[in-house]
Every structure is written in C-alpha cells, then in structure tokens.
Amino acid sequence: MDLKNLGFDSWFEGHAETMSRPGFDIARVTAVDRDACLVRNEHGEVPAELVGRFRFSVQDTADLPCVGDWVLVQYYNEGDAALVHDVFPRKTFLRRKSAGKTVDYQMIAANIDIAFIVQSCHYDFNLRRLDRYLVMARDGTIEPVVLLTKTDLVTPEELVQIVESVRNTGIDAKILTLSSTTGDGIDDFKRMLAAGRTYCLLGSSGVGKTTLINRLIGRDTFDTKAVSGTGEGTHSTSRRQLIILEQGSLLIDTPGMRELGILGASGAVDESFAQIGDLSASCRYADCTHVREPGCAVLSAVESGDLDRKHYESYLKLKKESEYNEMSYLDKRRKDKAFGRFVKTALKQMKK
Question: CA 180 to CA 153: how far, in whole Å?
Fold first, then answer.
C-alpha cells in the first residue's frame, strides 16, 4: 500500500512540495481522541500526539487534526508512535456549529469525496433533517448522496412515496435505497465505492450505518444496538474513524448527531435549495429576501403550489440560522482578538 491508496492524490502532492521537511513523513488521521489520534501511512497505523509548539500555535480548534486529515509527522520509538507537527490544507470538510450555546465550528471529518446521508425508511425519515445534512455536505464542497436504509420495513409502494417526497421538495441529490437485512441495493452501493476514494456515512443513531459497514466488511467487526421501542436510534459508534474496505475504498463512520447547527453556510444553503435560487432570478428586486417583497417569484411559487411550502420554510430557517450564528461567531472572534492584544500588552508592561 502507498499513500495514493489512502487518498493522497495530486491535489495533496502539490501542497507536499511546500510542506515537506527532511526527517518528517506524511500520514493520514484515522481516529481522534482529544489531543491524541491514530495515523496511518504506507507501513501501518500507530498512535500519535500533537507537539506542543503546534498545539499552542493553533488559533482555532477547527484547525486541529480531525479524521481524514493529512498530517506531517515525525516517527519515533522505532516507528511505533508519532508526533504531529502540521496539518495539510483541507480539500473538502464536514463541520457544524458546536453543540450547545457555544458559537464556534466543530470539525467532523475532512478530505471526503462523497458523503452518504443515511436515513431509515421507517422511524428516522425526516425531510427537514435531510435539508440540514445536505447543507453541511455542500458547505464543505462534498458531493452528497441520499442513502435510504431499512427498505425491508416498508412496502414497495411506501418506498416509492418516500423517494417521491424527496424529489417533490426540489432535492436533486442522487438517491440510493438498500436493506442490510435482505441485501437489496447493497451491490448498487458497492459499485459507487472506488479504490483510493474517501466516503463518509452521516445520519442519526439507529439508521443502520454500523450494520451497513459490517455488511461491507463481511463480518460483525463493529457493535450494533437495536432501535428502541419508541423508534429512536441508540448509539453504537462512539467515535469517528476511517476504515479501509477490502475493495480499497476508504469509509469514515461517524456517531449519530442530535444537533446539526448551521454556521456561516449561506452559500451552501442557496446551493442546496437550487429551485429557490432559480426562481429568485425572476424576482422584481435583486436583493429580494423572499419574505414579503412585492413581485417575489419565490412567494408566488409557494402560493401557486409550484414550490413546496415546508421546503421554502426550511430554506428561510436555515438561512436565518446560518447568518445569525455567523454574526455571533465574528463578534466572538473580534472579542477574542481584542482580549489577546490586551494580554500581550499587559505582559509587555509587566516586563518593564
């Protein structure tokens, strides 16, 4: 195995020309646990930790290594451990607003080619949550694919209705349907997985992500848990990790996420709601907000039924949330910088 098999393509090779240093190696992060992680290169996977200089020079936690990152490392202890000195620029990324009231970015994974947004055809199916996942993928310039699982729990007629409901809202992402229990659709899914390319499974707990991975591997390598009696999923994946499948493709599994806050992703919202973007070209005003302006083509489409009202309301909600959180984030950064300048000035005064 060489680095190309791990996804190190010409884009990263270009950056390696300026980042490489004598005595250092390139590796990929396969798992993260606070300041420690696992990294893999051509020779295998070893534990690694961040060097102090790098950890304290990072201005934002989002710049710390996450699963899928390429890093510059220095091996020691006869190659059984490594120190992380730097992170390569990210080609693509998955991020969300940090859970809770904190207004900051939380990195989920990086350098992904396709994100499979997994929803169960049974209890979990939710179009509004699907909207959020699509925005998350497109915010990081990742191609999204909708993956509907547990098709064995619905009738063929119900499955057709579910797919149509996705299309009727204007979502144009590719849709795959499968059942890990019966095997229906598994071969179609496998055909999408190319060697040396990186994929990610995104979705709530209990939608079948871990069961699907076990099916791809051919054995129960990862623990799964039954869905609760209320239909809510239960966690089985406890951390994000990159897995190398037998056919040579790379797959990142992620724990189910209950909070999917949107931050600074207005452009991705527009891209995910392309139908609204197309309609807005016919609005009377170029800066139309599509809320109450006269001559708004979007509002007219909602009133006539040409545009799904709930899809439109989801657009407004995500747009407002993203812009509000971005303003709060920028305000926080300004305060952090001001406090940093104050500390530096105070330290200089103390030395006099």
Answer: 11
Distance of alpha carbon 174 from alpha carbon 137, whole angstroms: 13
Q: Note whether 171 and 159 are within 8 A (CB).
A: no
CATH superfamily of 266-341: Probable gtpase engc; domain 3 (1.10.40.50)
Q: What tens digit of pLDDT does each residue of 8-55 get?
A: 999 999 999 898 888 899 999 999 987 789 999 999 999 999 998 888
Tens digit of each residue's pLDDT (9 = 90 or more) over 250-291: 999 887 776 778 777 888 888 889 899 899 999 999 999 999
| Cβ-contact 207, 235 below 8 angstroms | no
Cβ(81)–Cβ(46) under 8 Å? yes
What's the CA gap between 345 and 341, in Å, rounded? 6
What is the pLDDT confidence band of residue 221, given thresholds at 50, 70 and 90?
low
In angstroms, rounded to a whole number, what is the distance separating the alpha carbons of residues 324 and 330? 10
CA dist 228 and 236 (Å) reads: 13
- Residue 334, pLDDT > 80, answer no
Query: Could you state, in order of their start, the residue ranges of all structural domains in the chain?
Result: 3-87, 93-253, 266-341
93-253 fold: Rossmann fold (3.40.50)
> 276 burial class (0-12, 13-18, 19+ CB within 10 angstroms)?
buried
Rounded distance between C-alpha atoms, residue 185 and residue 59, angstroms: 45
Token output for 197: 């390319």
Q: Strands 143-149, 114-120: parallel, antiparallel or unpaired by DSSP? A: parallel
Q: Is the pLDDT of residue 346 over 60?
A: no
Q: State the average pLDDT over residues 68-95.
A: 95
DSSP string, 281-350: TTSSSTT--SSS-TT-HHHHHHHHTSS-HHHHHHHHHHHHHHHHHHHHHHHHHHHHHHHHHHHHHHHHHH
Find the angle CA(311)-CA(317)-CA(321) to the nearest 5 degrees: 145
